[in-house]
Amino acid sequence: MAFAEKLFGSGELDAEWRKAVEVVPRHLLVPFFYRQDGAVEWRRVRAEDPGFLAAVYSDTALTTQVIDGVPTSSSSQPSLMLQMLGALDVRDGDRVLEIATGTGYNAALLSERLGSDQVCTVEVDRELARVARARLGECGYEPVVLAGDGRQGLADRAPYDRLIATCGFTSVPPAWIAQVRSGGIIVCPLGVGNARLVVGGDGRAEGRFLPGGSFFMGVRSEGGNARIPYPGDPEEAVSRETPLACLDGEGDGLQFVLSLVLPDSAWAHEVDADGARTGCRLWARDGSWAHVQGGEVRQAGPRRLWDVVERANEWWEGQGHPERERFGVTATEFRTGWWLDSPGNAVPDMGA
Prior knowledge:
Layout: H1 2-8, H2 15-23, H3 26-29, E1 32-37, E2 41-46, H4 52-56, E3 62-67, E4 70-75, H5 78-88, E5 96-99, H6 105-114, E6 119-123, H7 126-138, E7 144-147, E8 160-165, H8 174-179, E9 180-190, E10 193-199, E11 205-209, E12 238-241, H9 251-261, E13 265-271, E14 277-284, E15 289-293, E16 296-300, H10 305-318, E17 327-331, E18 336-340
Parallel strand pairs: 5-6, 5-8, 6-7, 8-9
Antiparallel strand pairs: 1-2, 3-4, 9-10, 10-11, 11-17, 12-16, 13-14, 14-15, 15-16, 17-18
Helix pairs in contact: 1-2, 2-6, 9-10
C-alpha cells in the first residue's frame, strides 16, 4: 500500500495498475540485487541485509545480474515501468507479449492486471527465464515464460494486442510489427527515449516518444552483454579545433537526438574538480572514436563521429531545442525512421 502511494501520490490513478502494485510482492521477485562499492566492486545485497526492503520498495532501478563485472540485467525503475504500462493502454482480454523478462516483476504486474493466461514473456538468458518462471509461480502467476531472442518476438502465439519491451533498442524489429494486430500498440525503449507506436494495417507502426528519459540496458544476445567496448586511443587520429558548445546547456536533449542518429555508440564526459564538463569521449561499436578536450577534437576509425555531433547540434539548435515528445518514429519491415512533429518532417541524415 505504501509503495503504491509513493509511486502514484494523490494524482489521477489507474485503479487497476495501483491494485497490481499493491498486490505484487517485488521483494519475492527481486530477492537480492547488486550495489557498487566505490567505482569497481559489485556487492550482493540480500533480504537479510540492512536497507534491503527500503531499496526494493523504492522508486529505484536495481541491478540484478552482473557477469564479469558488467551489469547484464536489472529490475527497472517502478515509476518508469508504470509510465510504460500506462502507455500500453491495456483492456480486459488483451494478449500481451513482453520482451526481456528479467526478474519477472513486470510480467507479474501484467498477470495481475490481465490474468496469467493473457501474458507471454521472452528472455534471452535461459537461467534468468528459468528463475523468473519459478519465482512467478511462487507468487501465484503462471504466464508463458520462454527463453529466446526477443528481437524475433514469439510467432507461435501471435497475434498480440500489445507488446512491451524493457530493454533498449536502436530500431523496431520487423517481427514485432508482423506479430501485433492492426490497431495494436507497441511500447519500446528506442535510444534514450520510450516510444509508443500504433500498428497499422499497411505493415507499419507509427507513434511518438513519451515524456522523460529512458535508460535501459541494451538488447543483447545469449551469453553476451550490451556494452560497447572502448577501442582505446589510436596512435594516429585526425585533429582540429572545435567549440565545446555541444557539451553545455541542454546537452541531455541533444544526447536524445544523438541516440537516434548515432546508434550503437557510447559517451563518457570528462569533468574538472568542480564538476564542470571539460571534454568527452565518444566511441562506436565499429571502432570509430572521438575525444574532445580543451577545444581540440581528435577522431579516428571508419567514421568521424564528432562531425555528426556538430551537425546534429546545429540542426537541434535550429529547431529551437525541441523536447523529446515532439519526436516520433515510423517503423516498417525495412527501416525505422525518425521525425519531428509530423511524419512528413523527417530528422535529416547526419552522415553517420
